Amino acid sequence: MEESKKVLESFIPVAKSTAKMFGPNCEVVIHDLTNPRCSVMFTVNNHVTGREIGQSFDHLVKTVLRSEDFKDDYLAGYTFVTEDKRTIRSSTSLIRDSKQNVIGAFCINFDVEALNQMQQFMSTFLSTQVEVQKNETKSDDEIENVEGIVDQLIQQIIQNSVHPVMKRHEKIELIRFMDEKGIFLLKGSVEKVASLLGISKVTVYSYLDEIKNKSSEGRIK
Predict the structure, then answer these.
(1) Where do the YheO-like domain residues begin and end (predicted)?
(2) Lowest CB count within 10 Å: 15, 58, 119, 211, which one?
(3) How far apart are CA 106 and CA 31, in angstroms?
(4) Which CATH number describes the domain made up of 2-123?
(5) How far apart are CA 57 and CA 54, in angstroms?
């Protein structure tokens, strides 16, 4: 753990210089993925998305790892929309330790709302043609890499949370967290979680159904 901390802290100067170069609309976040439930360990210009130290990752599994363009441990140029409807353009690069285990993520979030407004203004004067390119299919090695990264996340999440007298509601809360983060979107993840928690995959599915039902009831209210 000490080695991981030192490796991640070595990226802090890079985070500061990146934010300084691109200005206040550029947020940089470093995640410690050895502590997935509280992964944010450093931020610069966190007013861009409101990321706070101690929060967890949001887009790592759902957007980054599942993207067909995720290769060589990074995804650049993906976008998401904030709660106040601003478009953020992002890049995420994974950080590995000396044993090639994924221990962190280096994320750059740029508020492009002003640029979008400028583009809309320019589009009234300039005609543009967008060429749609077909995404390449992931190779077997790339799929195996993503599965390995998610396996590490699952193991780290459970390792940091499980204890000998873990109660049912604690297991449900743990599964709810993993569901929110997109862990169960990947094939085989239910079986892996079930095995590490010492429960059946049927139980995991029943917990997921319970979580879904409670969420639906909350929306109805």
Answers:
(1) 8-120
(2) 119
(3) 7
(4) 3.30.450.20
(5) 10
